[in-house]
Amino acid sequence: MFSSPFRGGRFTEYLWQVSTARPGLQAGFTLCQVLPSVSHAIDHAVNRPSFVLLVALAALIDQSARTRPLRADENPPRRDSVTESAPEPATPSTAAPAAPAAATTDRRWYAVGAMAGIYVPLTVWSYFAWYYDQPNLPDFEFGGDGYFGRNTYAGGADKLGHFWGNLALSRGTTEILRWGGFGRLRSAIWASSLSFAFFAFVEVKDGFYYEFSPGDLLGNGLGAATSAAMVLYPRLDELLDFRMQYFPSERFRPKLAAGNVDVAEDYSGQTFLVALHLGALPGVKGEAIADYLRFVDLSLGYDSRGYRPKPEMDEPSHRSQELFVGLSLNVQGLVDATLSGRWRQVGHGVFEFWQPPYTTLPVAGLSRSQDLPPLSTTTATAR
Fold it and tell me: Is residue 341 included in any domain, yes or no?
C-alpha cells in the first residue's frame, strides 16, 4: 500500500493515485491507512473532512465511470462463459435518444469536481471562522450546551442553525449530483451523508477547542435527513420550505467590518422559518386563487436575540426568545413569475433557503426575555 497522504505533504500524488485505473480500490486502501492515524493527527483535523470527502467522491465517480444507465430501449446484456450477447436493436419508433456513455461520465466528473469545490473552501472558511488563533482546551470536552433553554449558549438558535446548514448544503449538492446524471436516490443519499460527515468532523474538532455538543450533532443529522426526505418525496418539498431570514445584527456589524467572517454565529441577526406554501395546498393548487396565494407563505418562526454575539465587557445584556406564527413573502413565487431559464432555477434555489430581511410579518406568538448583569469574565463554551 502507498503511504498516507497525511504524512509528507503528498496530497497531489495521492489524488493522482486515486484517479488511476481502480480509484475505488485505492481509496479503500487509503482509508485503511488514514483512519488509524486520526488519533495522532487530531490537531490537524480541520483538514480531515476535505481528505475523507475527496476519497468518498473518488469512490463514487469510480463506480459511476464503470456503470451507465440503460437506455429505455435497452435490456441488460446476458453473459455466458464464451460470448457476450448484444441487446436487441430498437425500432426507430421506440428508440429513445441517449447521450454517449463518455459524455455522461464526463458530466459526472464535473459534478463531483463541483462538490469538491464546495467542501474544500468550506473547510478553509471554518478554520478561519472558528479555530484560527483559538487555543486548545487542556482536554477533550464532551457535554451538553442545552437546546432551547433560557440560559443556553444561543437560546436554541444554534441548533436550528445546524439543522438549516445541513439541509441547505445537502439540498444544494443533491441538485449538483442530479445535474451530473446521478439518480435521485443515489444523489440524495450521497449528498446528505457527505454533509453530515463534514459537520460531524467539525463537531469532533470542537471538542478540542470548545465543546463537543450532542445537540449540534442531532441538528446536523435531522437537517441532512430532512433534505433526503424532501428530495425523495417531492410533494413535501412542494408544500414546505425551511428558510433563514438574515441581516447582520448591530453587535456583529463592527466585527464584520473588521474582518470577522463568522456570520454563522451571528444568531441575533437570524430568524428561522418553516414556510407553508399556501398556493400548493390541496384544494388550492390548480385553482385561480393559487396564482395569488403563491406569493404568500404561512410561516412558523423562531429567533433568539442578545445571546450571540456576546455583549462586550461591562455591557448589560438583554436576552429574548420568540416563537411566532406569521406571513412571509414567497420570493420563489416572484422569481417563478418573472424570470425564466437558468436565472429562474438559480433564484428559485436561493430563495428556498434564504428569506430576505423585513419580508416576514409576525401575527401572534410567545416570547420570553431576561436581563443579565454586565459580563466580568469570559469562558470557553460550545459554539
Answer: yes
